[in-house]
Amino acid sequence: MAAPAQGEDSDDGMDEFMESFKTKKYKNAFNEGNWEEEFDKVPMFMKTAPEEIDPLKHPDLACIQSIIHDDDRTPEEQARNYKDEGNEYFKEKNFKKAVVSYTEGLKKNCVDLELSAILYTNRAAAHFHLGNIRSALNDATAAKKLKPDHIKAILRGAQCCIELHHYSEALQWCDEGLRLLPIDKNLQELRAKADKQKREAERDARKAKVKAKKEQNEKDALLAAIKERGIKLLKPEASQHKGSDSEDDDGDGGSSRALADLELDGISSQEATGAHVYMDEQGVLYWPVLFLYPEHEQTDFISAFCENSSFIDHLAVMFGEELPPWDTERKYRPQNLQLFFEDHEKGNLYQVDLEKPLLSVLQNQRCTVKAGTPSFIVLVSGSPFCKQFLSGKKVKRLKF
C-alpha cells in the first residue's frame, strides 16, 4: 500500500493542533475522588437523564441524542460526526469526553477503514494525554492493523512504547514507519530517542547486576565470618520463645534453640538508623549495639561497635565528663555500672565483664544476636532500682 503524502490531512486538521499541543500539559485527569461525578456529566454515562433536555443547559446531550436518533444517517456519517465532536473536545483539552466521542464513533462499525483508523488514532492521542498509555498503545495497534501505512498511528505507538520503557518495540514501530517515509523527521527523532534510552537502560541494568553481585558476595563473606566466629543469630519472630528455667552450664550449648541459620534476615538491624553489621578490609566486624537503661526508659545506639573494643571503652565516652540530661542524680559513672545480656531462650541474665571485648561476649554460647543488633541492659550497681530489677531473676556471670 502506497504511503500517504507527507502533507496529507487525513485527520481533519488535528495535525497542526497536535504539533502545537506537544508542550502543553493536561491537568484535569480523572482521579479516585471525582471519576464517578465526572462520568455522570458525560451523556453516554449518565445514570439518569433530564426529563426535558434544554440545548442551552445540556448541549452535549442534545447533540448526541440528535445524532443517535437520526435514523436517516449512515453509520459512516454518524461515526464522522462523533469524530468531529471528539476533535472539538480534544482541542478544548477535554480528553475524557473526547475518548467517549471517539468510542461512540467506533461503535458504529462503519465499513470505512480509514475513518475507523482515524478514530482509533485520535482516541489513542486522548488516552495518551490522560496518562492511559497502555490503552493508547492498544488503540494505535488497532489503527495500524486497519491501515498499515497510517503514519500518525505508528508515531503514537512508538511514543507509547517509549513511555512504557519498551524500547525494542519502539524501535520496531519507528523502523516500520521509516520504511514508509524514510525522511520523516518525527520518526527519525523518536527512533534516536528510543535507541538512546534503550542503550542507557541496558547500561543501567548491567551496572545494577554487577552491584547486586558485589553486594551478594560481601553478604556471603560477612555471613561466613559470623559463622566462623560461632556467633548465633536469632530470628525476630523467635526471640520471645523461652524454654524451661532449668540451669545449664555456661558454654554448654546443648539445649535446642529457635536460632536462625546464617541468613540475611538475621543480620538486618531493625533500628530506625538502618545500621547493620559490616566487615572492614582487614576482616574485622563492626556491630550496631543497643544499650538499654530500664530505670529511666532510655537507650543508646552505637552504630559501629568494633568487635575488638571493650565495653568500658564506649561507656567511658558515653558517661565521661558530660553526663546525659536524664541522669539527674549523676550516678551513671563508668565505675558504677553493671552490664547484662538476656538469654533469649531461658530468660536468664548474664553479667558482662566491662573490660572484655564485644567479640568474646558474642561468642558465648548463651548469647544470641536478635535482628542483627546485640543489646545490653545497663544498671547502676547496688542502686535500689538495680536490686528490684534483678530480684526474682537468675543472674549469672559469664565465664571466659
Relevant terms:
disordered N terminus, alpha/beta, 10 strands, Ubiquitin-like (UB roll), 400 residues, Serine Threonine Protein Phosphatase 5, Tetratricopeptide repeat, seven-stranded mixed β-sheet, elongated, 13 helices, three-stranded mixed β-sheet
Write up what this structure looks like:
Belongs to the TTC4 family. Residues 235-245 have a biased composition (Basic and acidic residues). With 400 residues, the protein is an alpha/beta fold. It has two domains: 14-164, Serine Threonine Protein Phosphatase 5, Tetratricopeptide repeat, CATH 1.25.40.10; 238-397, Phosphatidylinositol 3-kinase Catalytic Subunit, Chain A, domain 1 (Ubiquitin-like (UB roll)). The chain is 44% helix and 12% strand. It has 13 helices and ten strands. It has helices at residues 14-21, 35-41, 59-68, 75-91, 95-106, 113-130, 133-146, 151-163, 167-180, 185-229, 311-318, 358-362, 384-390, and strands at residues 232-234, 259-260, 278-279, 285-293, 298-306, 337-342, 349-352, 368-370, 375-380, 395-397. Strands 3, 4, 5, 6, 7, 9 and 10 form a seven-stranded mixed β-sheet that branches. Strands 2-1-8 form a three-stranded mixed β-sheet, with no helix packed on it. Strand 6 (337-342) and strand 7 (349-352) form a beta hairpin. Helix 4 (75-91) packs parallel to helix 6, helix 6 (113-130) packs antiparallel against helix 7 (133-146) and helix 8 runs parallel beside helix 10 (185-229). It is elongated. Residues 1-10 and 238-262 have low confidence and may be disordered.
